[in-house]
Specification:
By secondary structure, the protein is α+β, with helices and mostly antiparallel strands. It has 5 helices and 6 strands. Mean pLDDT is 85; it is low at 1-18.
């Protein structure tokens, strides 16, 4: 092997028909790159200026990368005879998908088919707004069996640090 390597390396590049490649330019290390003066801060509150700037920047990036996403948000509320909210869901629509973000139903109303009704209503509304897919997430102590009964399938599982708790990511075609 050594003799073959020596023989190959002994042939001048010009004689072999190859030219010597220039080495790639070295990229400066992270520590040597000049960075602007920055400051990191943690802020609370949904109406913060920083939050708006971040969302605006992300929206510009998303639209430039994937086109308009036609964002909408809606709520399906379950109310009693007195008009009190007893449950429902909050959903968002974008990129032809409906994300069922929040779901809650008063314990006194569970087991009566009401959750099935409002999930179905949310799916219908999302479809009306252009969604072809619905997705949601639920914890192991919440309503995974209900969502499976409604046609949702798990596409991802996150085992949480707390023992016995997992988060399931589920979707279905509309």
């Amino acid at each position: 092997r050594r003799s073959v390597r020596r023989a190959v390396s002994a042939v001048p590049a010009a004689a072999s028909g190859m030219t010597k490649a220039k080495p790639a330019p070295k990229r400066p290390s992270r520590s040597s790159r000049k960075t602007p003066d920055i400051k990191l801060s943690v802020r609370s509150g949904a109406n913060d200026k920083a939050r708006k700037a971040i969302l605006d920047g992300l929206n510009r990036h998303n639209i430039a990368s994937a086109g308009p996403y036609h964002y909408s948000q809606f709520t399906v509320a379950v109310t009693d005879a007195q008009g009190r909210v007893r449950g429902g869901g909050v959903a968002q629509g974008y990129f032809e998908a409906g994300f069922i973000k929040l779901v809650w139903l008063s314990p006194t109303l569970r087991g009566r088919g009401i959750a099935t009704q409002f999930i179905t209503r949310a799916e219908r509304e999302a479809k009306k707004r252009g969604a072809r897919l619905a997705y949601l997430d639920t914890f192991s102590f919440q309503a995974r069996p209900l969502y499976e009964k409604l046609g949702y399938r798990v596409f991802g599982t996150l085992k949480m640090p707390r023992k016995g708790v997992s988060r399931y990511y589920m979707a279905k075609r509309l």
